Amino acid sequence: MMIPRRTLLGVALLGGAAALSVGLVCTPSTANPGAQARIGGAAPAFTVVDTNGKQVSLADFKGKTVVLEWTNHDCPYVRKHYNGQAMQGLQKKWTDKGVVWLSVISSARGEQGFVTPEQANKLTTDRGAHPTAVVFDTKGDVGRSYGATVTPHMYIIKADGTLAYMGGIDDKATTRLDDLKTAKNFVDTALDEIAQGKPVSTTTSRPYGCTVKYQS
Description:
This protein is of the alpha+beta class. It has helices spanning 16-21, 76-83, 86-95, 117-127, 141-146, 186-195, and strands spanning 47-50, 55-57, 66-70, 100-105, 133-136, 150-151, 154-157, 163-167, 210-211.
């Protein structure tokens, strides 16, 4: 089945051979020129609503490490991480240790990945996911302020409110489940280093996945 070009890679990470191996054509993406997120700088503030109708603000989590995971359940790259139980495992590992994990849905109404609160909660239950909350960014203001371009696009905010990591979840820009076994997970490594009081060794990487379906 052909996948629409809009759903393909947000960055031209793969070469022609690699793209053919997963049956996709890479399409380039550029960072949002209005993005405010910078490594070492203060993470952009936001207030959003979660799937239960509760307001969630970044300021609520002062003093805690926060992970932001841009997600779209219809994206084959997101499905790779959830079908392989990798995303759920990472969520549970770190939320059990006190890390706040927010799954962010920026898909606009009528676009791929848009869900109602009820549908989002069902997805969380059916997949056995473990985020602290799933939040809506339907207008795309939060995603654009962070420069989120693809799903999954990952960010880590330290307890002092500064951005410690932004980029891809790992170094295997494919949809193949088997690649989860050998992938270097940048998010897991960064969280380990933060927990140990060490500097984050990899602060940025090229994100890969489906383009975020922002409101036009």
